[in-house]
Design a protein that fits this description.
This protein is mainly beta. It contains 3 helices and 32 strands. It has helices at about 15-25, 275-285, 360, and strands at about 5, 35-40, 45-50, 55-60, 70-75, 85, 95-100, 110-115, 115-120, 125, 130, 135, 155, 170, 175, 180-190, 195, 200-205, 210-220, 225-235, 300, 305-310, 310-315, 320-330, 335-340, 345, 370, 375, 400-405, 410-420, 430-440, 445-455. A hairpin with a 2-residue loop joins strand 22 and strand 23 (about 310-315). The longest helix is centred in the first third of the chain and has 13 residues, at about 15-25. The two termini are about 60 Å apart.
Length: about 450
């Protein structure tokens, strides 16, 4: 929600003097701390529909006898006593605040509280007091009836993807009619940080709070309406692991915060994202994957015998590989992109899911580099027992790709972080961490650096 606040001029000096006179006539004997308790008069609060749809305006007024300079707070509650809005705690008598983005046709209750405070100079401890509740519905302007009534109204897109904390979100519900269609939330409340576009049906924003949600969206085209119900939970996704203190990663080039290069998804160039990558990753490992363990989107993947290029996972080779960001002359041929293979290799001509065979077969006929071309399998990232975070055991991770600087030069980095060997993942020691760093020296010249953190002896 967003809020608007208007400050109104407070009491006059004459009113303040009169208030003090009432205060001192009501003082009770001093308490043990030397201050005399004074029960402040009950404030009043008014609540009315605001200027814009979804708004409620609330005004607080001090009770008779409140001292000058007293401060107030206003809270707004839904019918089930859920707190939906809290004002700043510095309101003065006469101030007006506005709660926005509220549901229509719902009776909200506003309560104003005069805040407690101590005045050691006067020897008085002022006690807080709550107002009686004031009830109001949010402002709502019904759409004008069309020039002619709609004859049909049907849902076209009636699904929404899952929500995750601190993860940008955009999806649509869409209805079709022969007249204009408007959308509104008619039950419950959207997750915090999410809003509904009443014209397009777009549901968008960035969720801020984890936990359950339950709401209904109604499409209206006079005189018809259809509704959809949505419920679930706003997820907390696994982020990037910090390996800066991991002994097995001491030789691995990482981001300054210790995370794998490529896990910093938002900081990486967008041309490194395979086609429709956010949707692909979310369906496989993110908020929509249906698994117990969910991950924030990254330039990384987990699979068995697969390859990733610009066309996606095992995608169309004609789409090309992932852009290096510079050209390299590799044994007389110039390349500008690369395919990242799950089984410990990269190819400059095409991808490969092959392993263990002679190098030309491992790369499926493509020029490339194979620092550890064995049958790797990192799909244990989907296992809820693979605990992440500080102090946890070593765990499966993704293979990553991304760009960085190496000694001030552009570099493309591929890292296989904690990949296990297929059907040989017996314990936490059975992990393989290694990487390729391609450093651009200009004019096609490049350095190829192989870094090994640890590799498994599986002979």
């Amino acid at each position: 929600m967003t809020f608007k606040q208007l400050r109104v001029v407070g009491k006059s000096l004459l009113a303040a003097v009169a208030a003090f006179a009432i205060i001192f006539s009501s003082i009770t004997p001093a308490s043990a701390d030397g201050l005399t308790p004074f029960q402040q008069p009950t404030p009043t609060v008014t609540a009315t529909p605001g200027t814009y749809d979804g708004d409620i305006d609330m005004k607080v007024d001090a009770g008779p006898g409140d001292p000058p300079g007293q401060t107030f707070v206003i809270n707004l509650y839904s019918p089930d006593n859920t707190l939906v809005y809290t004002s700043a705690s510095t309101l003065a008598s006469g101030d007006v605040v506005t709660a926005t983005g509220l549901q229509y046709n719902v009776d909200y209750s506003a309560i104003a509280t005069v805040l407690a405070w101590d005045d050691p100079t006067a020897g008085i401890s002022y006690l807080s007091a709550d107002s009686a509740p004031a009830t109001s519905q949010a402002a709502y302007t019904p759409p004008p009836p069309p020039s002619s009534d709609s004859t049909y109204l049907n849902w076209v897109d009636q699904s929404l993807g899952g929500f995750a904390v601190d993860t940008s979100y955009s999806d649509f519900v869409t209805a079709d009619s022969d007249q204009s269609v408007t959308y509104s939330v008619t039950y419950g409340q959207l997750p915090d940080g999410i809003s509904l576009d009443s014209t397009t049906g777009e549901v968008s924003g960035t969720p801020t709070t984890p936990g359950p949600y339950d709401f209904e969206i109604t499409a209206s085209s006079y005189p018809n309406s259809v509704s959809l119900s949505f419920n679930g939970s706003v997820e907390v996704l696994r982020g990037c692991e910090d390996y800066s203190n991991a002994s097995f990663a001491s030789n691995i080039l990482l981001n300054p915060d210790g995370t794998p290069i490529g896990c910093d998804y938002q900081n990486q160039p967008t041309d490194l994202r395979p086609v429709d990558w956010e949707n692909t990753f979310s369906q496989d490992f993110g908020v929509n994957d249906g698994q117990d363990v969910k991950y924030a989107t990254r330039l990384g993947y987990a699979c068995d015998d697969c390859s990733v290029g610009a066309g996606g996972v095992n995608g169309d080779p004609g789409a090309g590989g992932i852009p290096l960001g510079f050209n390299i002359n590799f044994f007389g041929t110039t390349y500008s992109n690369v395919f990242v293979n799950s089984n410990g290799s990269i190819g400059f001509g095409n991808g490969s899911g092959i392993y263990n065979e002679p190098l030309n077969e491992v790369l499926n006929g493509s020029p490339g580099i194979a620092p550890f071309a064995v049958d790797l399998d990192n799909r244990d990232v989907s296992d809820p027992n693979e605990a992440w975070g500080p102090g946890t055991d070593r765990h499966a991770d993704f293979f990553y790709w991304g760009r960085t600087l190496y000694d001030g030069k552009s570099a493309f980095v591929v890292t296989w972080m904690n990949s296990q060997v297929y059907e040989n993942n017996a314990g936490p020691q059975d992990f393989n961490t290694f990487q390729i760093v391609i450093v651009d020296n200009g004019s096609g010249d490049a350095d190829y650096i192989l870094n090994y953190g640890s590799t498994q002896d599986f002979k």
